[in-house]
């Protein structure tokens, strides 16, 4: 798909000051039809952001209107993959120091205070990690590998880039770059229903299978059969998912199923396009 973009409001490529010190911070968010979530996300960063840019893949709902009502810049750009979109979004930040969030995330009070202190005192590293706490069908999930779910989300954008395998992007710092943890949580408002989880698992496993196929990965039958069992035992038993009650079991079960779907779809792709 050929990339094209449109912009509402000013947009500039990031400036690059040379030294540490008190920093100005750009918050960068990517969206597509996020009218349910984006206001909460934007409100949570008002106390730390010197610049907020939302890069949108041509939403058809009220996302754009809500973004502009909150005083953020709204830039539209064709979606070519999670990694590609997030790397392009960084180029729209006014400042090299970037806090990256998804629209269904928000900062808790402790994390806001940590970021304010960092901005005031100046950074002591090139990147900062923070824990993410997820709300699943209205329940905060603290086990099963879902917490602390540490993420690298605040960094000097001159020192790395988004990588990983779609749809599981991660920010990768350059060799020698230092990272430190921040106190507080990203609050992740994930699935409103079990059906939402199943739909997204189906969507993400299709993308993952396509990425593995493009990289020449071919799973054997043993991996197809064993990996889902290993995933369930790891999530529900070894990582304590059972402590989250009914929803802990549901998460472990869907995660195991998603592992099976990913490798089954990958095998099907090899049958169709050897």
What is the mean pLDDT? 91
In DSSP terms (H or I, runs of 4 or more residues), the helix count works out at 7
| Distance from first to last alpha carbon | 23 Å
Cα Rg: 19 Å
Helicity range: 25-40%
Percentage of residues in DSSP E strands = 25-35%
Structural class: alpha/beta
Q: So what's the overall shape?
A: globular
Question: Which stretches are poorly predicted, pLDDT < 50 over at least 5 residues?
Answer: 1-20
| H and E order | EEHEHEHEEHEEEEEEHHH
Biggest sheet details: 10 strands, mixed
Number of strands: 12
Describe the structure.
This protein is of the alpha/beta class and 274 residues long. The chain is built from 7 helices and 12 strands. Strands 1, 2, 3, 4, 5, 6, 7, 8, 9 and 12 form a 10-stranded mixed beta sheet that branches. The chain is globular.
Layout of helices and strands:
Blueprint: E1 5-8, E2 25-31, H1 38-45, E3 51-56, H2 63-69, E4 73-77, H3 82-90, E5 97-102, E6 105-107, H4 109-121, E7 127-136, E8 139-141, E9 151-156, E10 160-165, E11 168-173, E12 179-189, H5 194-214, H6 221-238, H7 245-272
Helix pairs in contact: 5-7, 6-7
């Amino acid at each position: 798909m050929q990339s094209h973009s449109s912009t509402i409001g000013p947009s500039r490529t990031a400036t690059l000051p040379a030294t540490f010190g008190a920093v100005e911070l750009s918050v960068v968010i990517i969206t597509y039809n996020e009218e349910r979530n984006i206001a909460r996300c934007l409100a949570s960063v008002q106390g730390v952001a010197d610049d907020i840019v939302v890069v949108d893949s041509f939403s058809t709902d009220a996302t754009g209107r809500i973004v502009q009502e909150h005083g953020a810049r709204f830039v539209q750009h064709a979606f070519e993959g999670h990694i590609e979109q997030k790397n392009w979004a960084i180029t729209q930040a006014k400042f090299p120091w970037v806090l990256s969030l998804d629209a269904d995330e928000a900062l808790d009070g402790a994390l806001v205070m940590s970021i304010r202190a960092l901005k005031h005192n100046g950074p002591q590293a090139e990147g900062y990690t923070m824990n993410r706490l997820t709300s699943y069908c209205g329940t905060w999930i603290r086990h099963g590998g879902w917490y602390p779910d540490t993420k690298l989300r605040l960094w000097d954008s001159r020192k790395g880039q988004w990588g990983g395998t779609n749809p599981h992007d991660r920010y990768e710092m350059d060799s020698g770059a230092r990272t430190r943890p921040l106190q507080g949580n990203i609050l992740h408002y994930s699935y409103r229903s079990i059906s939402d989880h199943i739909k997204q698992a189906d969507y993400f496993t299709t993308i993952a299978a396509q990425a593995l196929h493009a990289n020449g990965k071919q799973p054997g039958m043993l991996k197809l059969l064993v990996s889902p069992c290993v995933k369930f035992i790891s999530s529900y038993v070894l990582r304590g998912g059972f402590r989250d009650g009914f929803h802990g079991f549901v998460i472990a079960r869907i995660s195991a199923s998603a592992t099976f779907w990913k490798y089954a779809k990958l095998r099907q792709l090899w049958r169709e396009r050897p």
